[in-house]
Specification:
Layout lengths: L8 E10 L10 E10 L14 E11 L5 E10 L5 E11 L3 E11 L4
Antiparallel strand pairs: 1-4, 2-3, 3-6, 4-5
């Protein structure tokens, strides 16, 4: 995907917390239904052609009773040595237990 620094690895790190700040119960789950990077290879050289990559994720988040939750999402790009070269973050609030469809996209321009 990213030729400048060798092979890149993309990771999604999700942390869910009960509204009081305590960890969510073990029955909390995230099912990734689809993931994509477009284009699969890009050249962030500033020539206006394939200079960015868009990362898209979609899934279902299952939050059990009894409380509302904050979910912290972090998407990371790491180089072949494991060093983080880019990240995007967001925090989402959910009103209570249930099954929530989720989708997220982020654009990476090849810079750190």
């Amino acid at each position: 995907m990213y030729k400048k620094a060798g092979v890149a690895v993309c990771a999604l790190i999700v942390t869910w917390l009960a509204r009081a700040g305590s960890p969510a119960p073990p029955s909390t789950s995230l099912t990734i239904l689809s993931q994509s990077v477009s284009p699969a290879a890009f050249t962030p050289d500033g020539n206006g052609i394939a200079d960015t990559a868009t990362i898209r994720l979609a899934g279902n988040l299952l939050l059990p009773a009894p409380s509302a939750y904050f979910v912290e999402w972090k998407l990371e790009i790491r180089d072949s040595r494991g060093k983080q070269v880019w990240h995007a973050e967001r925090t989402t609030s959910y009103p209570g237990p249930g099954l929530y469809p989720e989708s997220w996209s982020a654009v990476w321009d090849g810079s750190s």
